[in-house]
Every structure is written in structure tokens, then in C-alpha cells.
Design goal:
homotetramer, about 325 residues, alpha/beta, Rossmann fold, 9-stranded mixed beta sheet, globular
């Protein structure tokens, strides 16, 4: 999670395709379909988990959504924040299926996968990427140096945490490019903590997409976008919102205040104003009002250190099962290290 | 920083005496003195550091302030959040003087001091107490077992981090009581991270007081209050606000929005409402509007892991210099461990 | 693992009853039984795990073994050092059974258990106790404050890591005594890292005994022995050897050199000397030869950080299953935190 | 510290030039000079610190020493293992001078330096490199993006910890090559923990050399050697021995036993054997006798976690002062993070 230059447009500021499609369908008929976009949903475990696949099919879809063509799968499960091993296993399973559906064809040879753990290992809500990078089952060096030790179809998995520019002095995209040029993977899987658009999504949503990453870069900086075109292999991104910025928290709360007032008999003028102002107007109002010092703060749950253990274990096990054909739910790693 | 039952009264919800006296002096004449309270201020280092001593003298002062009789010294220094060694040394010096002024008389024998590091070592903004407990210069075991090794006037310092009830299943006050019964100190110094009342105070204010602590307890639970009366020795508390709750953040922002609107030509009705409503009214409005999930979140700076290193180093060195007569600024520990 | 004054006698220097009985049976007939001692063994998982119960029955057994009357159960499993989830589950199961067999009677009321995690959390091979203390499923505070939330037969589990005297300045036994006086447990379970007598035992042996602990104390210091007599409740100790001292390593190696030479045709005089000298003679020879600096070193595997994760997870899950009647292998905690 | 294929020759197995020259001068006249090698020594702080510069001048020197032409500066200071701030400052100063003497010419433009922290951040005695990489004062990103913020002569410092092949699945040399191709430094400074040849050197010797590194590679594997020829910029290596292998410990002890016996009146045959056998013979004898399991163990001081804090602080501050012209001993970073 490096700081991006803010994208200035009318789309909500979010990395999650599902939040954009939700906004586009607002105030539309129930069966409205966004042009150029195909959305399928399923509810699992009696509603405890919801999986949505947003497929952007063509240029019209890209314009509608403000995101590149490709697949965006979202697993929503508020329960993953708790220590619930059996629910976590279910999510690992769904995550493995989602990743598998996005992996490149590789016929009968082993897949060469490079895991990139984005983020700063010294800031707790940003440790997700580095933790996953340490927990996946790395095999490439064994495949190269002692191939007799591993099964023929085990993926050649390598893994790497490039840290963040503030700590290295080097643009993260350049480090990844340098490593990828040497490893020459069939596929990169990059894991990152995201900033959420909504307080309720923190640590409960996983997005898996196949359209690349832009570590620490503003949109439009082609040199820093890492995708199939720029780096020569498929780039799958796995992201989890782990914090919200303070402006989001405050504007969410203003909306709640407006709703609360709406229930009361006498409509105060504040209610009318808040009602009229759209949510995004609140956001800009709030953003302006927040001092620079407050803008630097972030909002996170008290149990964030513990939740990072759960999430990194879920994601690393999901990757292991997806890329190594011989691994199953029975082999999930019980130790986060 | 364990969760207290909320104190229900018209005082602002704060652990800092200085925030209460600021409210009481609001809208009063400049030379107004709160009855039963004596306040002295000094500005140091060209205003980079401000030291305020609030002395509650009698019952009238207690009623005014809603806090027990005693001394509350506040060191304010926004610069301590940065990596600024020479400013940190200045604060260490001021902190050592403040602690020294509150230590009990001990004539010519060595002082027996028990350091208590309150808080949860697994939640970053709450690690201040445990970190300080690990960094003070512990001597009691040497004084008892190999007294020839240390100078006669070195304090007998012991140090202990009782963790939090959620991790131990034991009330923190009971653990402290059990340890204190065995160590029999002349003085306890307890360090804790606090919740701030104001976003601007996070990690920039240190309060030193001599009126005891109530770990994880509501006011009025005499069994959990640890002070000279209940535990038989002076109890000095050193507290630093390291987080604010989300309701504080939102209501602070509403006030800012009101100020912003006041500058604009046409007075909107929202402005009037926000202007009329006092800050504390915002807080209650906001508190009601926040969902339970949001109430569980907290607000903290991105650099919190790093700032905890600075603060724990400052406080442990301040304690070392205050209690060990032979230690000076030249001996400050350069390593936080 | 605090430093004990060395026990000076002809028993091998070891905390493991099984190592003493092995020495006593050396050079005896195969069916020799140590007077006053009952030993039963079973081999499990095709020999991958071995469980031995040494029961010291009476004063004669105490004299023979140099250890107090009681049960000493040893689980030996070299495989636990590897990341092998299914083998770990087997050991958890055996450990839970062993603990259960030593727990006090408690009829139909819930058992009140206090977990004590001995050791220094800042020295990796000594972190076992503090890690387990953090990973057991703590319930006492819920049972006291919100009993409606938990089942009637769930144990009242509290947990505590007293650190070591070098860090606190307080004798560990005193801290435990102070906490136990407030918690009033039916049973204490103390976890500690031990020094091994043999290199091959490092991290592969778990001893469970019910005869108390002496944290940081020499034998015979009654004030520091914590057992049923001195503290008023049963004290179960769970210990794992995680390091060996350098003298043990060197004397073990000398024995190996002697064996190696024995295989060679021409018997060198060194062989004769090494052969004659018993293993314990080597130890004393070596101890004398080692400089003070070397004595302060210890020997540990390269993967010690990782192995501590496995061991703490195994032991905390074993305790959870033993004390909480409703927990089973299905509920084992997959996250070490 | 990745495992190297063992160098098979008659030189002692060591990364320290000073240990080789010591062996070569053994049994020679006091004024003996190794051909092609220039050695200068100075003793500082009343003998508390010793600085030796071994300069290999030509091919004859290379053959004598078994190491490439260049400078090898060794700072020996047993006291750096203790918490001794003023002695540490002296060593920082000497280290900064040593690094400065090896930095490439760069006329009036700022030096572009890439710090490489070798080693495994999850194995305590191997954390030195990664810790230093995190503690140097990184400036390259500021120099590139906001040059107005920093002085013209501040070095462009970037910093990077490539982890180890066992965790990444990628050869460390390849990662460094990939990063260096993008950063294009004038000079690389690589920090690594070494295996010591002698127990007494652990954590008390720093070697600074300018002849390159071979991370995780055997001698003669040109592709993995990173030096001025292969990577196009000067490569300075800073190494500290932090562990010894078990064979070294045992053979050192055997030598001590021999010395001990020599003092006794009756010369036992063991003495004669041990006396005759050279130290390196012991080593091979011992190596053969040690089981595979024991070979995997290593020897380290109990306080290793703490000592890593001192060493990483000393080395990162030494680098800061050497490369950033405006930094002095007054600015040394008091916080290790």
C-alpha cells in the first residue's frame, strides 16, 4: 500500500471493482446490466460468504467502470476477522478456485510463478504482502538445483517482498522488473493491502484480479504499470482493504447522521443538507476540513495484528493449493511465521 | 490502555488534567483562576516544548476538576514524533525533573521503585508500557544478591509488564497487587498509553501525575484503584495519548467544517447548527450515529511503530535519570530493545 | 530457563527423568527394574513417537533417581521439528492425554487452571513458555464477568508470563506466588525451555511431570520451589530441551571420536583413553578446558525461530484440549500469535 | 550468511583476511613479511580497539592469501558486545573512516550508493544485514523526486535486503543484479553475518573489504561473484562473524584441553597426540566425528538478540557518516528499528 496520486474523476476512490459496479447500479432497475460488464454472484455457507465475479468485457465496459478489461473476483466474508478455522478453510478453498481460474495455460510443464508481497513490513496494516511472501511454499530453487526431490507437476514457485520506496529509495516497480527479468515467470501473483472505501469492508473482502498492478504509481504512468503488456507475463493481484482513510470514516459517519435524523419527526435543516449532499460530496467537504495532520492518520481495528495472521495464512494457503497441483486443504500450513 | 466504563458527566472524556482545565477556563477572563487549582506554565526551546503543572489543592479543586488532589505535569512537544535526537534529549531532561519532583522522600537509603508497564504488547499503539518496562535499568536483583557490584545510592529498580485482562484472564490490578506485596516498593511508576481527547495530542503529550492508576477499571471501583491509600506506596502515572477513538475524530472534524463554513459569505443552515452545537454535543451526536463496528476502530498515525520506539526510549531514559542518582543525559540508552 | 546453581552429584545434569533412568539401567540386565520406580513405554505411529512414563513410587525411588516422588511422562518425537501437521496433531493428542492424566480431581465444577509461561521472550530458544502463555484459550475473565457466554464445564483458564529475574529484578517464584494468591487456581501448569543433556534431544522431547518447578533456583532452596506443598495446588511442569550447553556438545563429540577410532585397525592411545573415560568424565574435562567466554555460548539449530512456532502451537493446543472438555483436535488453533 | 560449498585447500576456512595472515606468519620471524602483502596495525583507546589493514598488492599476494587483490580492514573490539555507548561511538568513527577510504572517487557529484543487507531476517544471528539495510538513511527517492529538499552533496543512498534463496527460491546474486541494473550505483556496500573461525571473534570483529561478494556461492562460480568486473561498480563488503560452527567449537576446545594437560606434571598420551595434531587436524577429525544432526547446529551467545541491535546500529551509523558528507557523530541514530 504505497500512496497513489489521487485519481480525479467521478468514480468512487476505490481499488475494488465491486464498489464501482454497486455505484453504477444505484437508482437503476433491478435487472439493469452495466454495458460491457458481466456480473455473476453466488452466496455460500448460508450467506456467510459471497463471491462476485465482475468481468469487464470490452472498451465500453472499461469506460463505464474506469478499469481495464479483465476479471475481478471478490470474496466477501466478514467472519474471516474472527478465529474461525472451519470458515477460514472454506475461504481458502474459494480463493484457490478463484486464483486457479485466472492462472495462465501451461499445458503439461510446471508453472513458473513469482509471488510479490507488496507493502511495508514495519507498519502492521501493511504487512499482508510481506507475510504472504514468507508463507507460500517456495520450490523454484529445489526444482532448479535438486529436481529429483520434487514431483514433476509441482509449480516452480519463487517469492519476494520488495518493501516500499520510503525504505529502499527505489521505485517498487523497478525492483519487481529487475527480479522478474531474472526469474522469467509465467505468471506474477502480487499481494497488497488496500485502502477501503467503506468502513464495513475492512479486513473482510478479498479481490482477485488479472489486470496487473501499479505499485506506488498514479494512473497513467505507463512505466510503473506492471501487466501482461509491460512485463510479458500475466499479473494477478490479490488485495484486501485493511485500513480506511480518516476522510472516509468521517463522511460515512455524516451519512449515518443524516439517516438517523431522517427517522426523527421534525426535519432539521441539517438533515436536509446532509440528505441532499451525495456521499461523495460529503467526502470532499470532509477532506477539505481535515487538517494535514489528520489526513496522515488512518483508521484500523484494535485487533489488527491478530487479523493480519489470519489473512496472511488464508491467502498463502489459497495460493499454495492453486499453484501446486498436489496440495489440498489437508496440507494447509498451520503455522504463520 | 484497557477499556474503561465510560465516565458519565459533563467533563470532557479525558485522562489529561490539562484538557479539563482548558475547558474550565474557556470563556473566562484571561486571569481567571479555577478555585482550588494552581496552574503554572513554562515555554522552553523557543516554544518547541511547553511544561504545565496543574496542582489540585483541595476538595474544591477536586470538584472543579473531577480528579483527585495532587500534581499533574504535562509536557507538550509535537516534535517528539520525529527522529530528532537533540529535542528528545531535552524532553528526557524535563521528564526526569518532573518525575524527580514527585518521587517520595527517602533520606539517605536507596529508593525501591517498581516500574509497571501497562498495556498489550501485541497491539502496536498499546505497547508503550511494556516497552518502557523492558528498557529501564533494572537493579533490584543485583542490589539483593550482589550488593558489592552497585553504588550505594543506586535505586533498587524492578520492572514488570502485567499484560491485559483479555490475554491473561486476570484483572491487571490483582497482578500488580500480588507483585507489589512481594516487592514492597517505596514507589510505583506506571506507564500507559492513553486515548486522546484531541487528534492533535496523539503522541505529542506526556502527563506525569502522582494520584494513582485504575487499570481497566471504571471510576469508583475502589478495589481496582491503585494509589497511596489502597496499595501503601506512592503511585506515579506516566501517560501518553497514542490513539483517538473514531467518535473524537469525527466530532473534531465537524467542528472544523463549521469553522470553514463560517469563513464563507452565505451562512448555510448547517453552519448555524454546527456553530450552536458545542463540541461535546457533536461528540454525542456522532457517538450515536457510529455503528458498533466503527466504534471498535481506532485512529492512529501511519508511523506508529516508529513513534513507539521514540516514546519508549524517552520515557525509560527519563525514569533512569530520575531514579538512579548517578545516571545523566550522557548515559542515555541508545538502543531500544 | 533461568540459570540454576549446578547440582553437584553423580547423577547426570538433566531435567529429564528418562535420562536418569537410562543411566541407571546401563550395564544392567535387560529386565532390571530400578527399585521404587515403575517404567512403562509405548511406541506409536510405527515408532515415530515414543511415550514413556517414569513413576517414582517411594523414598527409595526418590533416592535412586534424585527426583521427588511423582509422575514423569516423556513424549519423544524427532519429527516434530519439521513442518508436519498430521504428526503434530498426533503429538497434540498424546500430550493432551498426558496432561489429563495428571490434572487434579474436580468433580463437576469447572477446573481453575493458571498457565505460567516461564522464560525470556527476547531470547529465541527461551521463548517457548511466553509463547504458550499467549496461545492458550484464556477464559477466566469471561467466566467471572460474563458467565452466560461460556459453557458450564469450560475450565477457568488464566495465563501469565512472569519474564526472568534479569529483566524484572524480581525473583520469578515471588511473582508467581503473588499472582497465584489472587487467582487461587486448582492447578498450575508451567511451561519452560530446558537445557538438554544430549544433542539429539533438542526440540524433540516433551516432559510432563506433576512434581512442581523451581524457577531460577538451586535445589534445596525451599522458598523458591513451587509445588503442591509450598503453593497449595498441584503444579504440572511441561518442559522441552531447546539448547545444549557447549560442554555437552564437546563431550558428546569426544565420545563419538572414541567410537570412530574403535572401528579403525590400529588402536591409538587416544582411543584407549577416550574409551576408558566415561562420558561424564569427558564432561568434567571439557568443562574445565572451556574458557569462561565459551561457557556463555549455547548450541541451537539454525531453524530455532521456526521450531519455536511448532512447539508452542503443539503445547498450547495440547493444554486447550486437556483442560477444556468441549475442545477437540478439530478446534486446534491454526495461528500462532 | 548462506551456505557456501566448502573451499577445499590448506587455508583455514575463514572469511577474514586477518586470520589467514595470522596463520601465514605463525612460526616465522617477528619481522617476516608475507610476499605481496602489506600489513599495518594500530591500537586505539588504550588497546580496546585494534585496526589492521591487510593490503594484497599483486598476484603473489593473492596466491599467498588465497584471496583477491585489494584492501581488507579489520576492526577488533571485544567491548562492542556490551552496552557501551561511548566505545560504540569510537567504533562508528573508525568504521566510517575505513569505509571512506574504500569509496570510489566521485569528484563533485553526489555518490550513488546501493546498500545490500544480506541474510535471513528470521534467524537472529543472520539478521545483521537486513537490520542495517533498514537503518541507513535512505535518500535516493528524495533526490530523484524532490531534489530541492536535500543538500547537493548528500549521497543518493538506496537500500535493499534480498533475503536468502531458501525463502525466495531465487539466487541472491540474481536479485542483486536485477536491482543494480535499475539503480545503477557508483558503489555497492553489502553487509553480511559471517561464520567465525574462532570462538573469540564472535560479534567482536568487523571486516571491511573492497573485493566483492559471492552470496551463497562457492568460489569459482563466476556468475555469482559480484565485484567491480562482473557488476560494473565497486563492491564493498562489511562482515561480522556472529556464529561459529560446532566443529570449530569442538576443535578449539580440544586445543585448550591439550594446553591444560601440558601444564600438568605427567604427560599423558592424550596430551602428546593432541599436541602433535595441528589445530586444523583436530578440525577434520572433529568434522568426521560429528553426526549430520550436530553439523546443522550452531553456537551463539545467549545475548545474541541484544548484540544484533548494537552491531546493526554501529554499522548503519558508520555507513551514514561515511557516505553523507553532512552527517557526523552528533547525528547518529539512537533508535534501531
Amino acid at each position: 500500500m504505497e500512496k497513489n496520486n489521487e485519481k480525479e474523476n467521478f468514480f468512487p476512490r476505490t481499488d475494488l471493482a465491486i464498489e464501482i459496479s454497486d455505484v453504477l447500479k444505484l437508482d437503476q432497475a433491478e435487472d439493469y446490466q452495466i454495458p460491457g460488464v458481466e456480473i455473476t454472484e453466488k452466496s455460500i455457507e448460508e450467506g456467510e460468504v459471497k463471491v462476485t465475479r465482475v468481468r469487464i468485457l470490452d472498451e465500453e465496459g472499461e469506460n463505464q467502470m474506469g478499469k481495464p478489461k479483465g476479471d475481478y473476483i471478490t470474496i466477501e466474508c466478514p467472519g474471516i476477522k474472527q478465529n474461525n478455522p472451519s470458515l477460514h478453510e472454506k475461504v481458502i478453498d474459494l480463493l484457490a478456485q478463484s486464483i486457479t481460474s485466472l492462472l495462465p495455460e501451461h499445458e503439461n510443464r510446471p508453472l513458473n510463478v513469482l509471488i510479490i508481497g507488496l507493502g511495508n513490513r514495519f507498519a502492521t496494516p501493511d504487512t499482508l504482502g510481506p507475510k504472504v511472501a514468507n508463507q507460500v511454499f517456495v520450490t523454484r530453487h529445489v526444482a532448479l538445483k535438486a529436481p529429483e526431490l520434487i514431483e514433476d507437476d509441482v509449480a516452480h514457485l519463487s517469492s519476494f517482498a520488495p518493501s516500499v520506496m520510503g525504505l529502499t529509495g527505489i521505485e517498487t516497480a523497478e525492483i519487481i522488473r529487475g527480479v522478474a527479468e531474472n526469474v522469467k515467470p509465467d505468471c506474477i501473483i502480487a499481494i497488497d493491502a488496500l485502502a477501503a472505501r467503506s468502513v464495513s469492508r475492512i479486513n473482510s473482502t478479498i479481490q482477485i484480479s488479472d489486470t496487473g498492478i501499479s505499485p506506488g504509481a498514479g494512473v497513467g504512468n505507463k512505466r510503473k504499470e506492471l501487466n501482461e503488456t509491460t512485463i510479458g507475463c500475466k499479473v494477478i493481484a490479490i488485495g484486501v482493504p485493511t485500513v480506511v482513510d480518516t476522510a472516509t470514516l468521517v463522511s460515512d459517519t455524516l451519512s449515518e447522521i443524516a439517516k438517523l435524523m431522517a427517522k426523527e419527526a421534525d426535519h432539521s435543516p441539517l438533515f436536509d443538507i446532509l440528505k441532499e449532499a451525495s456521499h461523495d460530496d460529503h467526502y470532499h467537504l470532509v477532506k477539505e476540513a481535515l487538517g494535514d495532520e489528520i489526513k496522515e492518520l488512518f483508521v484500523t481495528p484494535k485487533e489488527i495484528d491478530e487479523i493480519m495472521e489470519y489473512l496472511s495464512s488464508i491467502i498463502s494457503n489459497g495460493i499454495n493449493i492453486a499453484v501446486h497441483p498436489c496440495m489440498t486443504l489437508k496440507d494447509i500450513n498451520k503455522y504463520t511465521y
